[in-house]
Write a structure and sequence with these properties.
Blueprint lengths: L5 E7 L12 E6 L5 H9 L17 E6 L3 E5 L10 H17 L3 E9 L6 H12 L4 E6 L6 H15 L9 E3 L8 H14 L3
Length: about 200
């Protein structure tokens, strides 16, 4: 897939505020500081379309981007905020959950996971929740440039082992690096394939 146009639409505090759309949407979500904004900018070949920050939790709204005029990329807040009050975390959880469960044209959720870390309880819990709600999703392991390929594969193998304790089969998995543009074409080709099969 060639990215011809990528436009920021707006930010929203609730899925009910998002404009109705008849084109496919793909949501990107993960723990705070997983490198989500950098990955989005890399995928869309735009340096500053999604705002990056050194402090976790920069994204606190639903950010909508329209790509090539035929699909939307949705940037969701992180599902773990280390530096916000518990009440605020509940607000973010409701925002994320409502969007994922109630947005009619959501096709797939891309769950971003830090490839440097062992399986995290919050990540596994979120994946389990998606499975229980029968929400289509895939996994994107980020920051792979910070590890050797053998270390990435070792961590990925460990993750698969942990997931297969509860899952009969694994979802689509991508390994990415925003700095090296690793995984870019694979992810875009996957979205392109889904775009060609869905009917809204």
């Amino acid at each position: 897939m060639e990215i011809k146009t990528a436009e920021f639409v707006s930010s929203f505090t609730s899925y009910t505020d998002c404009p109705k759309s008849d084109i496919p949407e793909y949501a990107f979500v993960g723990r705070s500081n997983v490198g989500k904004s950098s990955l989005i900018n890399m995928l869309l070949d735009r340096k500053k379309l999604a705002k990056t920050s050194q402090s976790p939790g920069k994204t606190q709204l639903i950010n909508q981007f329209t790509i090539n005029d035929n699909w939307n990329l949705i940037d969701l807040p992180g599902y773990v905020f280390a530096k916000v009050a518990k009440s605020k975390r509940k607000d973010f959880s409701k925002l994320i959950n409502d969007y994922i469960l109630k947005r009619d044209n959501l096709i797939c959720v891309f769950v971003l996971i830090d490839s440097r870390l062992n399986p995290q309880k919050n990540d596994l819990g979120f994946l389990r929740w998606l499975g229980e709600k029968q929400v289509p999703f895939c996994m994107v392991f980020t920051k792979a440039y910070k590890l050797s390929s053998s270390a990435v594969n070792k961590n990925l193998k460990y993750y698969k082992k942990e997931m297969l304790k509860e899952w009969e089969a694994l979802p689509e998995i991508f390994i990415s690096s925003s700095e090296k543009k690793m995984g870019r074409m694979e992810i875009l080709e996957y979205i392109d394939k889904l775009n060609k099969t869905v009917k809204l």
